[in-house]
Amino acid sequence: MTEYQPYLSIVVPLYNEEGNVRELHRRIHEALQKIGKPFEIIFVDDGSKDKTVEETNGLSPLTLVRFRKNFGQTAAFDAGIKAAKGEILITLDGDLQNDPADIPLLLAKIDEGYDVVSGWRFNRKDTLMKRFFSRGANMLRKILVKDGIHDSGCSLKAYRTECFREVDLFGEMHRFMPALLALDGFRVAEVKVSHHPRIHGTTKYNWKRAVKGFVDMIAIWFWRKYSYRPIHLFGGSGLFLSLLGTGVLVWMLIEKFYFGASLSERLWPLVGIFFVLIGVQLFIYGLLADIVVRNYYHSRGRMNYSIREVRKQ
Ligand code: UDP
Ligand code: MG
């Protein structure tokens, strides 16, 4: 018997989503039946402590991946994505805030030839506070990450599965998938999708997400600009600081020996030494980062480029 080969794989992370699960499955199922392509529905239970898992009993079709404990939304996406067999992958949240009825909009963009299509919660139904933070994050992302989309935090996204041949998800990076994939040359688009208020359960995030998101953005900025040669950043700035510090020290020596100035009361010699030391440190970071990056590419058996296809004619 040949294995069932879905075209669409729907991946949903669930952490304490009782009250949402059955309705979510019903809506996804309904949307997929309308589309009429072979599909699978994958729920990833991220260590729920409520009745989420019980509520999945009897739902069909369903693949349920259960974590031993709560590992976080990104991990849940990763596990779901690795379990998926379809050509096209759709992710969405399990709290009914995303609408499965929007899936055809994403698919239409995929059919236009894009590899990643991100939902844009044009009419966001979240608290003022959340929208405020999200607005700030989106502005910063525009500067640091440059993925060209408005709303990276929207979980409703579609991908060609080949996107994930080369990407593992860590930390809370699922929010930056379009950015990470754009870096590898995948074609990214966005479509406006609807958004609903959360009715059952509560949000799983608080202000800490803003801090993590900020740090993640800097990491992606670094990755975007320097992942191939980190020594260009560290070595370059290290060299600059060392030279600056040396300049300051030379100037101090000239003042002392030619003009007989007393240096013991002055700050500049300390500043000079500080710059030289920090500069040398940065340079050494650069050398170490260079080794780490080489190892990274080597251990993953890949290079810093990504091939779309190889044609033999
Ligand atoms: N989620 C998860 N693991 C977590 C936190 C969240 O699987 O540790 C799931 C959650 O069940 C929901 C989705 O990720 O399906 C988005 O979470 P939430 O709605 O709390 O985020 P918000 O919409 O408030 O940004
Ligand atoms: Mg939500």
Strand residues, percent: 5-15%
The level-1 CATH class of the largest domain: Alpha Beta
- Name the bound molecules: uridine-5'-diphosphate, magnesium ion
Query: If classified by CATH, what would the architecture of the largest domain be?
Result: Alpha-Beta Complex
Keywords:
313 residues; alpha/beta; 7 strands; 12% strand; Spore Coat Polysaccharide Biosynthesis Protein SpsA, Chain A; binds magnesium ion; 2 domains; binds uridine-5'-diphosphate; 7-stranded mixed sheet
Description:
The chain has helices at 21-35, 52-56, 73-83, 103-111, 128-144, 177-183, 208-226, 230-259, 268-299, and strands at 8-14, 39-45, 63-66, 88-91, 116-121, 157-160, 188-193. It is an alpha/beta fold and 313 residues long. The protein folds into 2 domains: 8-226, Alpha-Beta Complex (Spore Coat Polysaccharide Biosynthesis Protein SpsA, Chain A); 230-299. Strands 3-2-1-4-6-5-7 form a 7-stranded mixed β-sheet, sandwiched between helices. Helix 5 packs parallel to helix 7 and helix 8 (230-259) runs antiparallel to helix 9. It starts with 7 loop residues before the first strand and ends in a 14-residue tail after the last helix. The model has no long low-confidence stretch (mean pLDDT 93). Bound molecules: uridine-5'-diphosphate and magnesium ion. Magnesium ion binds next to loops. The site of magnesium ion (MG) has 5 residues, from loops.
